[in-house]
Amino acid sequence: MESSNQAAAGSHGVLPPEVLFDILVRLPAKELCRLRVVRPPWRSLTLDPVFIKAHTQRHPGPLIVASFAGDDPEHVHVMDLSGHVVKRLPVPGNHTMLSSRLDLVCVANKDGSCFAINPATAAVSHLLEPEAPPESEDDEWDCYEHYSDSSGCVEYEHSEFAVGRVDSTGEYKVLRLASSCKTWEEHHDVYLVSSVLTINGVGGWRSTESPEFIADIGRDHSSVVVGKAIYFLWYDDHPWAAMQCISCFDLDAEKWTTHPGPNPEDDDDDDNIDHYASMICASTLAELKGYLVLAHNRGRHSSLDL
Asked: Could you tell me the pTM of the whole model?
């Protein structure tokens, strides 16, 4: 009887390997990393290739959708976190992918064309272009053709798209900003036309008010989607807008607002617009765990504002 009790006590808390395997394979990777330091046998088990394969199959990680301008520009690539290509999706020519964290892929070009692609089915939907705004008496919006006239006026249009999701309704929406530019000798005027489309919705494109200040839609990383909002940096040809440097479009309310940016850490004069404008020109926008991030590149020193 005594030897039986000793054997029971010695095996207390020790699970058969197959039972331990079945328990640990159900845990997320973050918890497994913590448990590896508890007991050496647990570490050995979780590093075993058989266990790693079983855990990967039970916990499929997020997929990455990427496009490559110089290599196979006619497709977007769906990859796992190891870089293995799961599938390739064909895209219309001369279109680039919009950055997002959605289960929907959108590609667009600067001429105003946009497509939505379902990664699961590879179905492609053409998001028809919005109608051009009506011409005004002073020809202010007659900028939908590329031309030069004898007066030295050069007019052109440039479009930028962003896609996001409204969690409360489950709707996917695409924002389009079209800039119409007019150059008269030393004068350079930029106008923005804003419109929004609900994917798979009714009614097509809807015109919205324009942002209070000109948003920068020609520079990489000057816009980012955070939740249901799309943020844009200001256009640096308008220094008076520098202190209100971030324009925000709410996809739910479909309205624009303006937000001040952070103050330069080494600027004793909060009203120094030139210094502030210089900082924003060397900045980019990003998203981090639901926060809006403004990253500054100042030579050897860089900083992040959340």
From this structure: 0.69
